[in-house]
Every structure is written in C-alpha cells, then in structure tokens.
Amino acid sequence: LSLDKEMEIILGKNKNLNNPKGKEQVSNMIKVASLTRKSFMAGDISTVMSPRTVLHWAENANIFKDTGYAFRITFLNKCDESEIDIYKEYYQRAFGEDY
C-alpha cells in the first residue's frame, strides 16, 4: 500500500481528520507504521503495524482525544515487552514527542 493510498483510506474512514492538523496526525501515524514495517522486514522486531491497525489507532485517538494513549491501547499492548522501547522511539521520531 502506498503512503498516499493508506492516507486516503484512513481519512475516508475518519472524516473528522480531513483537515490540515488531522492530515499531519495521520501522516505521523503512517510514519510510525512504516518504521515498524521496515524493522520487521529487517528482522529487528516481531510485531508490525498494519494499515488496519493505523485505522484503529486513528479511531481511538478520536475517541480518547489522546494520540499517545490510543497508540498504547491500539498497538503497544500487543507488542513483545522487550521491544516496547523500540516502538516508543518510533513514535517519538514521527511525532517529535514522547507519548
């Protein structure tokens, strides 16, 4: 899935994010997912973030009004505990802040 297509799908399902701030948020979410995909293919991590997970993350971020909390409940809770710091680093790289 191309980044543009993934963005289109997520914005299509989360119309409230179809604005400049929302698009930036979704773009950052996709950056985190891309980092997990590259690391998974390199064998560095065992859990990859699918487009469906990004979609659920966006939905949960809207519900809870907290992208970091939504990241934790949507994705981090499914990850191997020994890899959590790697995923947190990906979040920090994409969003420029700790969750």
Structure at a glance:
With 99 residues, the chain is mostly helical. The chain has helices at residues 3-13, 20-41, 51-64, 67-74, 84-95.
Overall description:
There is one protein chain. The protein is mainly alpha-helical. The model has no long low-confidence stretch (mean pLDDT 96). Helix content is 68%, strand content 0%. The relative contact order is 0.16.
Model regions low in confidence, pLDDT < 50 over at least 5 residues: none
Rg over CA atoms, rounded to whole Å, is 13 Å
Please give the share of residues in helix.
Answer: 55-70%
Coarse structural class: mainly alpha
- Helix-strand pattern, N to C? HHHHH
Shape: globular
Number of helices: 5
What is the distance, rounded to the nearest whole angstrom, between the alpha carbons of the first and last residues?
26 Å
How much of the residues is beta strand, in percent?
under 5%
Task: Kindly report the average pLDDT value.
Answer: 96
Secondary structure: number of strands: 0
